[in-house]
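[step 3/7] fold_predict: job queued, chain A
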Amino acid sequence: MGLDEITRTLTDLRAKLTAPGAPFELTEVEIGGEKLPAYRHAKRTLPELIDAARSFGDAPFIVYQDEAWSYARVFAAADALAWALRERLGVKQGERVAIAMRNRPEWAVAFLGAALAGAVPAPVNSFGLRDELLGACETVQPRALILDAERLERLGGAGNLPGVEVVLCDTGSAPVTGVHSWTALAREPRTGPPPVQADPDDPALLMFTSGASARPKAVLTTHRALCQAIMNINYIGAISAMSSPAVIETLMRRGLLPTTLTVVPLFHVSGLHAQLLSSMVNGRRLVFMRRWDPAEAIDMIAKYRVTQFNAAPTMVMQLVEHPDFDFDAMRPLLAGIGFGGAGLPHRVIGQVLDRLGATMSGVGFGMTETSGVTSAISGEGFRARPTCSGTLSPIIQLRIVDPEGRVLPDRQAGEIEVRGVSVMREYWGDPAATAAALHDGWLRTGDVGYLEDGYLYIVDRIKNVINRAGEKIAAAEVESCLLQHAGLVEAAVLPIPDAAHGEAVAAVVVPAEATAPTEAQLQAFVAERLASYKVPARIVVSRERLPKNPAGKVLKSELRRAYFEAG
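[step 4/7] structure written:
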């Protein structure tokens, strides 16, 4: 399909799918005095969304370390936990239940059980150390905390959490003073969950931002926002499939059970919304990895006949460029790879599109603050525009503004601002940060991008735009250029102080082999492809992987301290 043809197709399908009487019919809801578009047929509350998946019964839901959990088993445990939270731990509707553990079936049970009890689940960063875990609990003030043995050890015991009911999910653990046993709470069979009366505008979820450079903030999401976001994922699937009929026909002939290999943390929107909850409402299977390892991921894709892999750009690159990744062997299995919204080298996208055959691979752009909703594209649409971040969601309004807040025309880059039914209500307990992010219903995303023919293109984060003598340089553009070099596997670009130009371009790169390209060779490589002022003044070749947060974002503040700050 040509560019104009796919654009017309997507426009026509959007109109049909959202028309009166259609599955994704649009209506209007009033939030904060503003009338906003919303899906008429989305569920009203999180418990309603969860209950709709009970019909999948004995179908496989979650696989973890060769143990399979059916939908029925997950829901039986979640119902038992919901009653125990209410009756034995005294959790009241609207109170927070924090979750801190690695991806495992009990994580899903804890989340579903908390929601079914009428509580507000608050997943926290399971990679955090003692102070980070305590800080998260201090922020959300949970009535209960459900964790695994590793997190309990990091916290130094339940004594550091006065007033919090602590539940240890490791069934093989010996009794621990001051800690409730998961087995004791979740083993009593119950018929259904406790009754809950929730309103669509009530708090449903507290989820922390990724916190690449500062202390993470807790994003408050309502029931309406969360349910609309999950409905939007189904809309993306529908419009992508309808615009790629030949691809869908090829995939359907394989007869494989839709299965996602989940490697991103469930405490992030890309794990919870786009994988756990989206799979749940559609009766799909999830395979959890204990920890990320590209070689093990390749084995698991083959073993479990995985059809979908969505992960951070660094993980996707490590997977498809691993020496054991065989495109011929993967072609009959993988129906799609999700690339994230930006940051992946074009060479990797090209490899997947050229060598993996007919797939529904694609990209999307969203934030914790938008419940993951902004733009997306996959299938033939993505093949036609592989450098974009998708077309806009029907329930999101988006504009591009300059530093003074003036709306910019198409093809001019500026800060992306969005508003819509899926946008957060506030940063929990942080009115100053809320006021800085939200104005007149619009959310300042901190991302730089532009619109072209209805497609969104991401340039970079505002803080990653380098100002060299008045010339604005997107770090992502220079990173993408460096990663075209076959000798590199990772690259991070950041500004450093420069007496002559205010800021200069610096980079830290990780070579693919023992023999690395030199700084001068890399500078010459960039100079052949980008304007001279974009060539890094300094390039550090590191033998260690770049530091990242759990969402896969490079921690540039750590690189700056390690390589470019004196002392």
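[step 5/7] annotate
Residues 469-564 form a domain with the GMP Synthetase; Chain A, domain 3 fold (CATH 3.30.300.30).
The chain is about 35% helix and 25% strand.
exit 0
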